[in-house]
Amino acid sequence: MASRNGIVFEDFFPAMVEKLGTEGFMKELCNGFQLLVDEEKGVITFESLKRNSALLGLQGMSDEELMCMLREGDLDGDGALNEMEFCTLMFRLSPGLMETSRDMLEEAIVSEF
């Protein structure tokens, strides 16, 4: 389980990758982005995140927690999350995926040398 700002999230991502495969998992992440996106702007804004957060079971999050989530994932500083930033944030919030990614990188390096 991962904890962010006092909220505990169960990390199901590694099991999803195992079941769906990498390509299927990435498609599901993109579907998650589409659930939260502001249709007019094409990015996840504070307003669209707040409006749609219940779809992901996040209805109990405060405005400050939602803003913190946006700030943490906002790599280009525009105050919103594009699809790449959203997927990157999801990976960073999943300790299991980060560990799997680290293991895969180490294996690739060892096999290369």
Question: Could you explain the architecture of this structure?
Answer:
Strands 1-2 form a two-stranded antiparallel ribbon. The protein is built from 5 helices and 2 strands; from the N terminus they run ββααααα. It is elongated. Helices cover about 60% and strands about 5% of the residues.
In short:
The protein is mainly α and 113 residues long. 62% of the residues lie in helices and 5% in strands.
* Overall pLDDT confidence: 79
| Largest sheet geometry | 2 strands, antiparallel
Percentage beta strand:
5-15%
Estimated radius of gyration: 15 Å
Order of helices and strands: EEHHHHH
Shape: elongated
Structural class call reads: mainly alpha
Query: So how many helices?
Result: 5
- Low-pLDDT runs of 5+ residues are none
> Whole-Å distance between the termini?
35 Å
Main β-sheet, spatial strand arrangement: 1-2
